[in-house]
Amino acid sequence: MIYEAYYKFLAILNDPAFLHAFFDNRFYLILLVIILLRVKYTTYSSMWMSSLVNIPGTILHEFLHYFVGALLNARPCNFTIFPRRGEDGNYVMGSVGFRNITFYNAVPSAMAPLLLLPLGFYVNRLVLPQIQPTFVNYVLYVLLQTIIIENAMPSGADFRVARMYISGVLMYGFIFLTLFLTL
Fold first, then answer.
1. Mean pLDDT, the chain, integer
2. Of the candidates 44, 63, 162, the residue with the CA atom closest to the CA atom of residue 103
3. How far is CA 111 from CA 86, 117, 162, in A?
4. Among candidates 131, 153, 156, which has minimal Cα distance to 142?
5. What are the residues whose beta carbons fall under 8 Å from the beta carbon of 113, sequence distance 6 or more?
6. Which pLDDT value is given to residue 171?
7. How many C-beta neighbours within 10 Å does residue 112 have?
8. Fewest C-beta in 10 Å: which of 71, 90, 178, 183?
9. pLDDT confidence of 91, banded at 50, 70, 90?
10. Of 24-33, 102-111, 138-147, which one has max mean pLDDT?
11. How far apart are the first and last CA of the chain?
């Protein structure tokens, strides 16, 4: 009996009319993202459960710090994705240390996770149209995009590193403003 109910439920979820109504309604998308984030935040009472939920995004976030820092001679000296409790009592999911932060590499090294945003854009543009339109695939797609976009946001520590060299902030601000005005 449970077996039949399960298959009836799957048939409803994968009904083309239901899928079309679900996929085309932004309310359901926002609701799904909020539910996923609530599930994620319920794990924050345990550092290890929180790290398991956050590990894919933490790896992406910290890898980009490491990669851009290495590319711009910031000399990454440590890389960790193991959680620890910070000085303020909050969890620090991962970190990358640098030995050579200067005016020209502080901003790009600190803001490197923003490079995940184009990845999220192209996953949306190129991958979504290729996947089979099922409810489970849509939930997995939303989960993937939530991980990518949430971990693209620089942390407070990232902003502190970027602000260390005001000359670098001004230089990159001028470069981006010039590029924006010429487009």
1. 87
2. 162
3. 21, 12, 7
4. 131
5. 60, 61, 64, 65, 151, 152, 153, 154, 158
6. 92
7. 25
8. 183
9. confident
10. 102-111
11. 62
Token pair 């149209």: residue: 129
What mean pLDDT do residues 28-48 have? 79
The 3-class secondary structure across the chain, one letter per residue, is: CHHHHHHHHHHHHCCHHHHHHHHCCHHHHHHHHHHHHHHHHHHHHCHHHHHHHHHHHHHHHHHHHHHHHHHCCCCEEEEECCCEECCCCCEECCEEEECCCCCCCHHHHHCHHHHHHHHHHHHHHHHHHHCCCCHHHHHHHHHHHHHHHHHHCCCHHHHHHHCCCHHHHHHHHHHHHHHHHHC
Rounded-to-integer distance, Cα 110 and Cα 66, Å: 10
Task: Decide if 69 contacts 76 (C-beta within 8 A).
Answer: yes
Q: Is the pLDDT of residue 150 over 80?
A: yes
Q: What residues are paired with 79 via a beta bridge? A: 96
The pTM assigned to this predicted structure is 0.80
Does position 9 have pLDDT exceeding 90, yes or no? no
